[in-house]
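STRUCTURE:
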């Protein structure tokens, strides 16, 4: 018959908890290192994607302008009245009997500059781009975060293994008892 004592159960639970904390701390250290290592390339990717989006918008705008100018060319070739009207506007000429109404310059017809029918939306960088720029180019923050990642990894390998379960359990227990005594001392009854 094998019976498991409460001491063995506590040790195995503490060992599992220490193992879990060990792996979580290593994941955090690797995550910090990865962000620092990949930030320059990730930022370059984000900026290139942003530039591509802006170029796509510009391409669509230019395609619409070409289409509109194609319609104007077709109308000039086929419609004599349109060509005459365009020439009168272009040379500021008028027919006898035409009545002219004075308007402000922003409302006057100008055959040379057609207003764009398509307004370009502003393509902006994602919200995390300033953080990427900070992690990619600020050496002080980069070295600080790399030091933190190294310290986490060293502490994990030094203190968070199963042979340290008993001392860690005692340290956590004494910290908890100290904290409870401090809280109880200042707690009102």
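SEQUENCE:
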């Amino acid at each position: 018959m094998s019976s498991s004592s409460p001491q063995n159960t506590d040790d195995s639970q503490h060992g599992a908890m220490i193992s879990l904390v060990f792996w979580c701390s290593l994941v955090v250290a690797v995550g910090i290192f990865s962000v620092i290592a990949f930030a320059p390339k990730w930022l370059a990717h984000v900026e290139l994607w942003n530039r591509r989006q802006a170029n796509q918008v510009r391409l669509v705008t230019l395609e619409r302008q070409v289409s509109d100018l194609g319609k104007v060319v077709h109308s000039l070739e086929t419609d004599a009245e349109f060509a005459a009207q365009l020439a009168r506007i272009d040379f500021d000429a008028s027919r006898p009997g035409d009545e002219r109404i004075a308007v402000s310059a922003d409302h006057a017809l100008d055959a040379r500059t057609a207003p764009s029918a398509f307004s370009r939306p502003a393509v902006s960088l994602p919200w995390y781009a300033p953080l990427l720029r900070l992690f990619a180019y600020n050496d002080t923050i980069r070295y600080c975060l790399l030091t933190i990642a190294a310290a986490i990894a060293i502490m994990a390998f030094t203190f968070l293994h199963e042979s340290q379960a008993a001392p860690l359990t005692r340290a956590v227990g004494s910290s908890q008892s100290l904290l409870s005594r401090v809280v109880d001392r200042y707690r009102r009854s």
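REMARK: The chain has a mean pLDDT of 83.
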